Amino acid sequence: MQRSAPSSPPPEWVRRRTPADLAACTWLLAEVHRADAYPSPWPEDPVAWLARPDLAGAWVVELESAVAGHVALTRSGLVTRLMVAPWARRHGLAVRLLGVAVARADALALRPSLQVVDTRIAAIALYEAAGWSCTGACVDVRGRRLLRYAASARSPSAPASSPRDEIPSLR
User: Fold this and answer.
1) How confident is the model at residue 158 (pLDDT cuts 50, 70, 90)?
2) For residue 41, cis peptide bond before it (omega within 30 degrees of 0)
3) Which residue of 64, 76, 77, 149 shows the fewest CB atoms closer than 10 Å?
4) Is the entire prediction scored with pTM above 0.70?
5) What are the structural domains of the chain?
6) CA 64 – CA 56 distance, rounded (Å)
7) What sections of 17-154 are H helices per DSSP?
8) Interhelix angle for 121-129 vs 93-107, to 10°?
């Protein structure tokens, strides 16, 4: 679904993802993959990749009546599956989605964290601009270096009342 960029920041709506959203989320995933090669590799079953069984929640953001972004949170506090359609970028939607995931993690007494491949410069810049802090690195099963990030209490995507002392070990 190719769309043109809005001329001014239109109203957006973040809401819980429903099973009915999965087709639109798969289109979104394909758009993001074409633009950014994320995810890499492309999942064999994109719906299963989006709707992994360990989720504590997943949300979409709508822009101009279309799913423009997605984020999920695992029961361990890992923020995952964050993506915004190329046509909907530069409106703060990713930070808004991060904020929703962090708020849910806080409500569940989880410490939100995320991982990013160290070559994803734009994603790293987004997380750092949103106040997330790099807490370490590891190597995944494909041999890629992953950076671990934790939401900080001062980040626009993290409520100030949340402690961020430690993050769980990530796989």
Assistant:
1) very low
2) yes
3) 64
4) yes
5) 12-112 (3.40.630.30)
6) 27
7) 22-36, 46-50, 93-107, 121-129
8) 60
